[in-house]
Amino acid sequence: MTTTTPRSLISRWPAWAGYAAALWSLSYGLLGVAWALGAPGFPWGTSDPDLDGALSILADATPRPGGWWIAAFGLLSTVVALTLARTGRSDRVGPIRHAQTATHGRGLASLTPLLLAWLMAVLLIIVIPDSRLMMGVAYSPVLAVAPLFDLNVNGTTLADAWPWPVVNQLVCVLGGVLLAAAALAYQRRRREACRTCGRTGQDGWTAPEAAARWGRRAVYIAATVPLVYCATRWCWALGVPLGVSKEFLVEGARDAPGIWLAGAYLATFGAGGGVLTLGLAQRWGEVFPRWILGLRGRRVPPLLAIIPATLVAIIVTVAGMTYIRGAIAGRFSMAEWGAWLPETLWPLWGGALAAAALAYHLRRRGQCRHCGQGAGRRPSPQLV
Fold first, then answer.
1. Above 90 in pLDDT, residue 103?
2. Sign of the alpha-carbon dihedral angle for 190, 195, 197, 200
3. Has residue 112 got a pLDDT over 80?
4. Which residues contact 239 (CB under 8 A, 6 or more apart)?
5. Would you tell me which of 60, 124, 302, 328 could form a disulfide with 176, CB atoms 3.0–4.6 Å apart?
C-alpha cells in the first residue's frame, strides 16, 4: 500500500485546510473587533447599497453589536478549525488500517466540531451572500470589455458591480469553503479513509459506474431548470409579457432603459452554462472535440470543469435563496410570478450542478498516488 507524502501544496490540502480556516476565522474575527470599535468598512447596514433590505439577510446589522457578533463567530470558528486540524492528526496520507493509529473518538465529542464546521460553512457560503454575487459574475465580462468597444452600459463599471459589501460576500464564501475543506479532511480521518482521495475500499455510490448513473440524472436537471428562467427573460426582451403584465414591461423599460436586453443576456448566459453542463456526462467533457483547434483530441483537465461548475453551483444557489427569502417575506405578487418564481428553483439547479460536478470527479479520478486505491480502473463508463 503506497503511503508516500505528497509534495505539492494542493495535494496536501487535508493537512493545511484546518489551519487555513483558523487563520481566516481569526482574521475576520479581528475585523469584527475593529468594526465594533469604529473602524470604517462595516459591510452591512447603512454601508450596503441594499438599503431596503430586499437582498441581504443582514441588512439591519450595525457595527455595534454586529462587529462583536462577528468577533465571537470568528473566535468560535477558530477554535473549531484548530480542533479539526489537530484531532486525529497523522502524517500518513493513506487510509488508517489499525484502530490504534486513530487518536480521534467516535462519540458526540468528536461529532460536535464536525457539525459546527459544516453549519458554519453553510452559513458563510449559502446564507450570508445574496444574488448580487451572481450579478457580479454574470455582468463582469461585459463591463470589462465595454470601454474597449464603447458599449452603452448606462455608466455602470466593474466597481459598481463589485462594491465592498459584495466583495465581502466573496470573502465569506472563501471562509466557508476553507471550513468545509477542514471538515471534510477531519471526516476522512474519522472514517479511517485515505486523506487524499477519501476512499475506504468500499466504493458503493462513489464507484465510477454508480456515479455515471446518478450523475447523468443530475446533469439533466442542472441543464433543464435554468430554461424556465430563460424563457421569461427572452420573452420580455421580445415584448412578450410571460408571467408579468404589459404594464410591468413598459414601466421597467421606462425606469431602466435596456433592462430587458440585460435580462436576455443573463438568460443566455445561464442557458450557455446549461449546455456546458451537458459536458459533465458526455464524451466531449473528457476529450476536447475536433473543432477546438490546438486542443482537439487532448484530455480535458478535470479541474477545468469541476472548479467552474462548483462556483456556479454556489452562486446560483445563493441567488435562489435570496428570492426564496423574498417570497417568504411577502415581497412578491403571484400576478407577476414571472419576475421571481423561476428564480426560486435555482437552489435545485445549484444542487444538481454540484452533484453533477461530484459525479464527474468520481468518474474521472484514477488510481490514488498516495493510497494506491483505484488501480486498474477501467476507462469512464459509456457516456451519452
1. no
2. negative
3. yes
4. 249
5. 124
Element (H, E) at 352: helix 346-364
Q: How far is CA 284 from CA 144, 207, 357, in A?
A: 29, 21, 15
Answer whether residue 53 shows pLDDT above 80. no
| Range 133-148 average pLDDT | 84
In the predicted structure, residue 279 carries a pLDDT above the cut 70? yes
∠ CA 17-19-20, nearest 5°, is 65
Per the omega criterion (within 30 degrees of 0), is the bond before 65 cis?
yes
**Cα–Cα separations (whole angstroms), residue 16 to 4, 81, 268, 380:** 17, 10, 39, 31
Rounded Cα distance between 351 and 165, Å, is 25
The rounded mean pLDDT for the chain is 88
Residue partners of 290: CB distance under 8 A and separation at least 6:
296, 297
